[in-house]
Amino acid sequence: MKQIVRLALALAALVACIALSACGSGIEEPPATAAGGGGSGNRVKIEGKPSGELTISNWPLYIDKKTVPDFEKETGVSVKYVEDVNANEEFFAKMQPLLANGQSGGRSLFVVTDWMANKMNELGYLQEFEPAAIPNFQKNLVDNLRGASYDPGRDFAAPWQSGMTGIIVNKELAPDIHSICDLFEPQYKGKIDMLNELRDTVPLVMKCEGVDVEKATEADWLKAIEKIKGAAESGQIRRFTGNDYSADLTNGNVVAAIGWSGDAVQLQADNPNIEWRMPEEGCILWSDNMVIPVGAPNPTAAEAWINYVYDPVYQAQIEAYVNYVSPVEGTKEVLLKEEPEIAENKLIFPPASFTKKCSIQPSPTGEEERNINRAFNAVLNG
Amino acid sequence: MTAAESSPMRVWRWLREHAVGIVGILVIVYLLVPIAVIFVFSFNDPAGRYNFTWVGFTLEHWKNVFGIPELNEALWTSIKLAVLATVISTVFGTMMAIALVRHQFFGRRAANFLIVIPMATPEIVMGASLLSFFLILGTPALGFTTLLIAHIMFCISFVVIVVRSRLIGFDRRLEEAAKDLGATPFQTFRLVTLPLIMPGIFAGAMLAFALSIDDFVISNFNSGTTVTFPLYIFGAFQRGVPVEVNCIAMILFGITVAAMVFTTWQQRRAERLAEVRPDQEGAAMPTPPGPPVQAAA
Amino acid sequence: MAALKRRGIPYALLLPGTAWLIVFFLIPLYFMGRLSLNVNLGTYYPFDWHWQNYSDALSLYDTQFVRSFIYSGLATLICLLLAYPLAYTIAFKAGRWRHALLLAVIAPFFVTYLIRTISWVTILSDESPVVDVLHAIGLAPDHRVLATAPAVISGLVYNYLPFMVLPIYASLERLDMRLVEAAKDLYSNAATAFFKVTLPLSAPGVVAGTLLTFIPATGDYVNAAFLGGTDNQMIGNVIQSLYLKQSDYPAAAALSFVLMAIILIIVLIYIRFAGSEALMGEEAAKA
Q: Are residues B91 and B204 in the same domain?
């Protein structure tokens, strides 16, 4: 019944809109929260102790089963945890109409990759943290993530997990794949998957071409995209996938894929022949970050959540399941006692020597971004 | 057939005679195999997240059918949406069908044409144009309301077609008889017409419901952050569709088959009760006795 | 006064439904056209008579357009070849089993479209027995069916087959068998009777079925998304990506418009060729 009332109201608003041609909030108008190039200027206002409801949007399979109930018990906040972030761009496309109007669709916290956090911040869609409410974060963030180029003061993006993009190989079927360039070898035709994420796949291919990705020009990006296009058209690449390269790998449909380090650890449990390999050219490093959007209904609880997961004990619990790279100092020590294999795993706690050739995920902006995006999506769409 | 015809020749001849039927049956098998696969795999016990290879038999997922909160929420949203869209589109569609069949008026052909066009438009164009509409106007915000608007839109045509075909085969003499017995037009409609076309209306409603629950393309474009059952599956495909989805699909399948059988049975029953036979329309009828009601006035 | 009220009744009955269709079907087409002429400024999209969207779209995505029409054309043809014998069987050779067979034809619709398509991913996965058989008879040289054009086409065939069967069946069911008997009385054999009597009389069903299959198949993107590979994506996938991933609304709207226009032209030519009563059926003639 409520829905019918809402429908009637919406229709009335619609009629008024069309009749008066006075809507002003459609996509033909410049956005209301016009950003002056950085930040919404909003800082989270902490209101007493955390309580009420908290809606979090995160990527799938990015949390263990106990953290949410434990958090609810400890703080009394009722958490609605939704795994609806499947890809940065899709999530952004869905959220943009809401965020541009200062709403977040009920979410107080969501998790997006570095470049998307940056983009959202520039558009004024995010709030700044109130540092006093997140002491654990201030204290325990690992050093190498402290000064991100897009968020030097760590004011609006708190890393949830970090990861490495490299090659996941079925070592029984393709023992000799050790570099990105190897993925283009004709003997593996039709047996390779690549990620449909622009900022993972193309920088890796640029590395194969010998480019320093952190200084890459638009021409470098486009040249790498051309190379990928050739491989797609010749049938070298079977599919461009999102999270679902795992299915192809476990089924034996492909022998190697560009993939994320955390997935590989989980896949290895299913099939010991599957392993993540550091490409000879190096990998891509990225972080997924917790951000608080404008219009968040319960930012107090959101900050309480951030504070909670930055306690090494609770982080260890998450880490043991998720198997990505933890951003919380002290987690390794906790895990050494309880689950040493995880603590010793190079993929989960990579030593600096392991990642020495890796680059931070680059991201084009402005006009460059549109051109590169268009070229890459043209390849994705066949 | 001569006695000297050999066995292989006989087989070949039998095949040739029944070729069409054999192809027909093979096509039916082809249509049903994937359903069987879905059913079988609802008992699968996959090792990882993906339900693509058979591992082992388990009843676990059937016992736990409604154990995934996100899936349940999506399913519930779909059902709510389908019920509302069905009710509204059936009302609108029935009204339109009655107008189109019973009345002659200016613009009738145009209205007929308008009904048919949505059925001949690719869903992606309908979904994309609605999205363009909502984006430019900026209201309503993409979500349940826009989904409802979209679903009502594409259901109306189908309801009209179904009810219309039911109305065309309707014996007007029953209504005339009611009028002769002194019923007002409204009473006639309520007590005679409506009950008799009810099977048609019900069939139209069922069709609308099925279309709405199953709609993916138009919903994909106009749902914003709302998740319906098909949208949930599309999103889940990447990270592994849970086995419970197969179970729910089979439950929906069972319910639909049962509903279809029920409707057909109802329809046959209604037809028998009313003894409506379209081919008798226009057949010569014995002249009725003189107007009886006037005497009571 | 009463006469006026009576005249007004059909319009009153028509009003809600027609208004809904006009506002939410016809008018959005205008808005889509308008959006296709907007310019993409990243955060907003003002109106600009930006015809460039069309030339950009056509030059970037012409492969996908052509591919979509080829796939849906092939799928429609295969559907026709499979559906006709089935419709014929149900109409003339099924007897008591007629309703059960019809139920079997519609049964796939009772399972959600997406799950039907996903089950084909299971059936056609590289190590399934089905692919083994196909490989043995030489149809799958790489021992792989998924992520190829045949996989997408067979997905389209499967999903749209009932749309072809039902209209042809409806048409065949109304066939007056006495005409066929008359042909036989005039010394024609079974084949001639079929081609000269049955087939032409079932033309309305064939036309309707072909249109009901071809039109949606061309805009389909689910089959290509699940069953296709890197170079099997259809124009529907492009439109979906542009709207829902890249937020490049003007380009997406332009592509959508072009798709609709091309389909419309093909349909008009086809109807011209096949005769318009075939499309609307006898009901339109009565109307």
A: yes
CATH of span C15-37+49-286 = 1.10.3720.10
Per-residue pLDDT reduced to its tens digit, A210-235: 989 888 999 999 999 999 999 998 88
User: What does DSSP say about strands A192-195 and A237-241: parallel, antiparallel, or unpaired?
Assistant: parallel
Give residue A265's pLDDT.
83
Q: For the residues B60-85, what does the mean pLDDT come to?
A: 91
The 8-class DSSP code of residue A242 comes to S
CATH number of B188's domain: 1.10.3720.10
Do residues B77 and B54 share a domain? no
**Is residue B6 one of the residues assigned to a domain?**
no
Distance of CA A194 to the CA centre of its chain: 17
User: C93 touching B, CB under 8 A?
Assistant: yes
Alpha carbon of A136 to those of A133, A319, B174, B276: distances in Å? 9, 17, 81, 79
Residue C200 has pLDDT above 70, yes or no: yes
**Rounded to an integer, what is the distance from CA C242 to the centroid of its chain?**
22
Tokens of A318: 């998450």
C253 within 8 A of C35, measured Cβ to Cβ: yes
Query: Chains meeting A at 3+ CB pairs closer than 8 A?
Result: B, C
CA distance C38 to chain A (A): 8
Closest CA to A263 of A177, A202, A325: A325
Mean pLDDT (chain B, rounded): 84
For chain B, the domain total comes to 2
Q: What is the pTM of this model?
A: 0.87
pLDDT in tens, C69-126: 999 999 999 999 999 999 988 888 877 888 888 888 988 888 899 999 999 988 988 8
* Inside any domain, residue B288: no
Domain regions of chain C by residue span? 15-37+49-286
The answer on B262 and B122 residing in a single domain is: yes
Q: Determine whether the interchain pair A13/B139 forms a contact, defined as Cβ–Cβ distance below 8 Å.
A: yes
Q: What pLDDT is recorded for position B4? A: 60
* In a domain? residue B286: no
Q: Which domains does chain A have, with CATH numbers?
A: 39-156+292-310 (3.40.190.10), 163-285+357-380 (3.40.190.10)
Check whether C284 has a pLDDT greater than 70: no
Q: What is the mean pLDDT of residues C207-231?
A: 92
Range of lowest pLDDT (A14-28, A170-184, B182-196, B209-223) = A14-28
Phi then psi for residue C228, to 5 deg, are -100, 170
- Give this complex's ipTM: 0.86
A374 touches chain C (CB under 8 A): yes
C-alpha pair distances (Å), C168 with each of C83, C216, C238: 8, 18, 33
Nearest residue of C to residue B20, measured between CA atoms = C85
What letter does residue A241 receive in the DSSP assignment? Answer: E
Burial letters for A330-347: b for 16+ Cβ neighbours within 10 Å, e otherwise?
bbbebbeeeeeebbeeeb
- Identity of the residue numbered A225: I
pLDDT above 80 (res C277): no
Terminus-to-terminus CA distance in chain A, angstroms? 45
Candidates C83, C115, C161; nearest CB to B233: C115
Full residue range of the structural domain in which residue B49 is found: 11-60
Greater model confidence, B18 or C3 = B18
Three-point CA angle B66, B71, B72, nearest 5°: 55
